[in-house]
Amino acid sequence: MIDLVQELDALRRAVVRTDGEVTLRVSRRYPADTPDVWSALTEPERLARWFLPVGGDLRVGGEFRLEGNAGGEILACEPPTLLRVTFGGPDSVVEVHLRAVGDDTKLELVHTVPLGMAGSGAGALFPGPGWDIALHALAAHLRGETVDPEGAAFARGSVEAWQATVEASGTATAEEIAAACEMARAQYLPED
After folding, report:
1. For residue 177, what are the contacts with CB-CB under 8 A and spacing of at least 6?
2. Which CATH number do you get for residue 135?
3. Which of the four, 66, 125, 126, 152, has the lowest number of CB atoms within 10 Å?
4. pLDDT at position 70
5. What is the domain extent for residue 180?
6. How many domains does the chain have?
């Protein structure tokens, strides 16, 4: 059985608000080599096993579509260290950076949107838990496992962790955070 506290603590989160943008960062180390992590992130067959099926023109300048989810344009692809895409709209940019750390790989995901789209740093509560869930699923995939059946407990812990991150960042008011938490719970924990 997976230790949910350990899995939640394996993720490092940050929110920054600068010059009209809100940026969330989430990172995690994986006990796998960088080419293996890159393969899991960029090969459609592997991506479908832990995230979502992807289709489209999968090259720089091409567009991709995640089944049942967002799509975007592939802005940069520098194997095995950098993938940059728009995600859900031209002003929502996601970068994934990989770097070897000994025998492990550190993955850092950076998602930047205009302040007008995010509203405040509390806007991180909308995509943040989703990225946590995805990076948790990637960890399970790299271990040769399926995602644990305690997904709701992980999602609940993730929303709480992002709430604490936004509060500590000073990028949103208490009212903005409360409203964003309510919406995040409705999105990620509809049964609550």
Report:
1. 122, 125, 163, 166, 167
2. 3.30.530.20
3. 152
4. 93
5. 4-188
6. 1
H/E stretch holding 50: helix 44-50
Contact 166, 177 (CB under 8 A): yes
Which amino acid, 143? R
Neighbouring CB atoms inside 10 A of 125's CB total 29
Does residue 176 contact residue 119 with C-beta atoms inside 8 Å? yes
- pLDDT tens digits, one per residue of 90-130: 999 999 999 999 999 999 999 999 999 999 999 999 999 99
Distance CA 147, CA 150 (A): 8
pLDDT tens for residues 12-64?
999 999 989 999 999 999 999 999 999 999 999 999 999 999 999 999 999 99
CA 139 to each of CA 32, 63, 98, 131, 147: distance values in angstroms, whole numbers, following the listed order? 9, 26, 14, 12, 9
Helix 174-188 and helix 151-169: axis angle, to 10°?
A: 160
